[in-house]
Amino acid sequence: MPPPEESDGLPLLEREPEIAAAAHAVEGLFGDTPSGGLLVYRGAAGLGKTALLAEVRRMAAGRCTVWSARGGETVTSVPFHVVRQLLQPALTERGPDDVRDLLGDGYDIVGPALGVAPPGARPADPQGVRDGLETLFRRLAETLPPLVVIVDDAHWSDLESLGWLASFARRTGGPPILVVVAYRSEDAIGECAHLLRALGESARLLVTLKALTSEATARLARAALGEHADDPFCREVWEVTGGNAYETVELLAKARDEALDPVGRSAGALSALGAATRGTGLIARLEGLGTTTTRFAWAAAILGTDISLELVVSLAGMGPAEAADCAERLRLARILVGNDPLEFVHPLIATAVYRAIPSGIRTAFHGRAAWLVTRKGLGAALAARHLLEVHPDNDAELVEQLREAAAEHLAVGAPDAARRCLERALTEPPLPRVRAEVLYELGCATLLASPATTVRHLRDAIDTQLLDDNLRVDAVFSSTTTCASTPSSGSPRHSRTTTRPGKPPGSSPPKRPAPRPAPPR
């Protein structure tokens, strides 16, 4: 479901150059020599990036095929989450045989990453998955009207999707595809920031959005509340919001709801109204809706984006009628939108609600969410994002779930996600013999990204003297050959690592039966 628009029906002001560039890019898909490209909008939270993407979507509607996706703060650890949002609608409308034909030789490589094929028994090559995704996009684009790909909140994209997108944006040849990306510059850190910079370098347009001027804020105030809104009132709106487009729209909606007379003598009330749209004021407004409604909002924040009503009802621990009442209260309060799935009106609200959940309750919610996801048969990999947030508690079942999730991540070409699961499993901690196996698996997971780290983990596993014979032999061989091909700087000397016949270094251990869902804690 597309994210809600920020403009609330109000005009999109001081974004004319960005809108014109987007219109030109969309028209370029239909020229005598059709061309695509990449547009990137960045800026602080609430400056209207989502509203700009909604305008691009409106321009392309009815003429283009539009695929949309959105990152989420609580789902950054889910591999290929953004890619699946983009592609699954196009794949689910086809039958299984058509999907297999479409993917061709890449079915067993790309299919698991997209969730249309079961994970294989062996790790997938991440570059092979990226290449397969690019091939799939090209094939689909050749059979559809001109394609527009929209990614919002890319700063919260999973690294696997973002890495693919950065590579895809540099492609040459093939059918024209327009890619439009928006992200918060202040929240892009680490590898995510590096990949977003790479995207910016490939863009035909890279724009840093700025706050609205007092003049634009006054125009919005008069559009929302009437032309009789006077200058002192409009100036106070701008002072309270700092020209933040989202906060301006929310403040004007509150003023309208309160039937506030938009004249100078009412300006003093704007500060209190503005506080209720963000931070502690927002949380106080949420708590004013009652403890049951607050709990429902907490459960929704735990689940993140594209919120399943069934899951949020189970997680909140309430009946359908009570849940429906809570959802309606939250919609009227402009906190949630939609029915099933639900979404937060703005990511700023989702973040504020999530961070307001008391630490102990938040951890318990994540534990129960993992249990619900597993019980519903959605797989250990989807449960893992919740398990990563649970406090260590010597839970053997949780360790097994994390190991199962790591195996699934490796099978879809997401070794970094596997590494996170296994590192978390070590902190539980596992029993000594299981710890040796987790160290071995962690060595397998880090081979491509950090051979030196692989050697350290494999040697640690060997030093426990608790590995079975097969794993110990493989760990010794793999650590020796990896060490031999890795200079002291930690970067490989050769593009390929010597392997023992029939047994590549870092190959996955024998498959274990899937663990039972761990009970909620």
UniProtKB/TrEMBL annotation:
Low complexity composition bias: residue spans: 479-491
Protein name according to UniProt: Orc1-like AAA ATPase domain-containing protein
Extent of Pro residues compositional bias: 502-521
Domain of life: Bacteria
Species annotation: Streptomyces camponoticapitis
Region (Disordered): 479-521
InterPro entries documented for this protein: AAA_16, P-loop_NTPase
Keyword line: ATP-binding, Nucleotide-binding
A Pfam family reported for this protein in Swiss-Prot or TrEMBL: AAA_16
Record keyword Protease present: no
Domain spans labelled Orc1-like AAA ATPase: 12-180
